[in-house]
Design goal:
With 298 residues, this protein is mostly helical. The protein is built from ten helices and no strands. α6 (147-181) packs across α8 and α8 (203-220) packs antiparallel against α9 (223-243). The longest helix is centred in the middle third of the chain and has 35 residues, at 147-181. The model is unreliable at 1-6, 14-26 and 291-298 (pLDDT under 50).
């Protein structure tokens, strides 16, 4: 039959194209790893850390094994894991810039907080005392008798340990947990694992220190705040043992007036930190929570 003038011809059905359009992308890794993968990576890195500590101890001696063990067993593996398991190393490890004011208040908060922990640790020692031989070992590897030993302790116990553990816990792990469960649950769970993998005789103080580090990183949006605070806490502990000649089994208790002073410094430092890291009147946001959790995390 002849088609009428002006009538459109019937369109022929076509098969849908299987070629992705320009705006379509194939599914790949996101900026944060899945929580179970993140926990597994942290556990593997801690196992590697123990292995390389033994290896470098056999080669260099226990005093000089700390720094290379943290670099090879902690820093390098977590950078590789972030490269392979996420779409962005910078985002997954929270390698964002920091503000000078935030760093200064971060130092004040971490120093005063770790000083306040001395009385807590002293109280715990009365209930759950650490074996004297472990105390002697920890004091020995942090003892500074010369400039060379100062460099050894500073590079290993203070710097390398802080960088490696912050990349592992507050960077890789906590970012993943915050993405899934929200800010506060992410900080809580990260601090719990952080304390469990450390000293069982100092579980409570380490848990609270982990909570402080987690909050600083989450609020400031950068793992560098955690590295600075972690290095300060380690340096304060090392300095206390060396400057005051603390020996194994010695009970450390600070006078109440000094405790009140440090509490005031801590509160003022935290208030200053929160104000200094605000962006256009709003605090740095935590990673968005996954849709399946229906949590805000704020």
């Amino acid at each position: 039959m002849r088609e009428e003038i002006g009538q459109r011809p019937e369109s022929t059905p076509t098969r849908p194209s299987t070629v992705p359009q320009a705006h379509e992308t194939q599914e790949g890794p996101g900026p944060y790893p899945r929580p179970l993968f993140a926990v597994a990576v942290v556990l593997i890195c801690f196992l590697l850390l123990q292995v390389f500590t033994l290896v470098f101890s056999a080669i260099l001696g226990i005093h000089y094994a700390v720094a290379p063990a943290f670099v090879v067993g902690g820093i390098v593996p977590i950078l590789l894991a972030a490269r392979w398991l996420t779409s962005s190393v910078k985002v997954s490890l929270r390698l964002s810039s920091v503000r000078a004011g935030g760093v200064l208040f971060c130092i004040g908060a971490s120093f005063s907080f770790i000083v306040l922990q001395y009385n807590v640790a002293s109280l715990i020692d009365k209930i759950f005392p650490m074996p004297v031989w472990i105390q002697e070992f920890l004091l020995e590897i942090t003892r500074v008798r010369s400039f060379l030993e100062f460099l050894r302790v500073a590079s290993g116990v203070v710097v390398a340990a802080a960088v490696a553990e912050e990349l592992l816990f507050r960077g890789f792990l906590q970012g993943s947990l915050e993405k899934r469960y929200g800010r506060w649950r992410g900080i809580l769970l990260t601090s719990l694992l952080f304390a469990l993998l450390h000293d069982p005789w100092r579980f409570v103080p380490i848990f609270f220190v982990g909570g402080l580090l987690g909050y600083l990183v989450s609020r400031g949006g950068s793992v560098y705040y955690g590295m600075v605070a972690h290095a300060v806490t380690n340096a304060t502990s090392v300095a206390g043992g060396n400057l005051f000649g603390i020996k194994a089994g010695t009970e450390v208790s600070l006078p109440i007036s000094f405790v009140v002073l440090m509490a005031a410094v801590f509160l003022l430092s935290m208030m200053g930190f929160v104000r200094s890291v605000r962006v256009e009147g709003k605090a740095h946001p935590a990673p968005e929570v996954g849709e399946s959790t229906h949590l805000t995390g704020k």
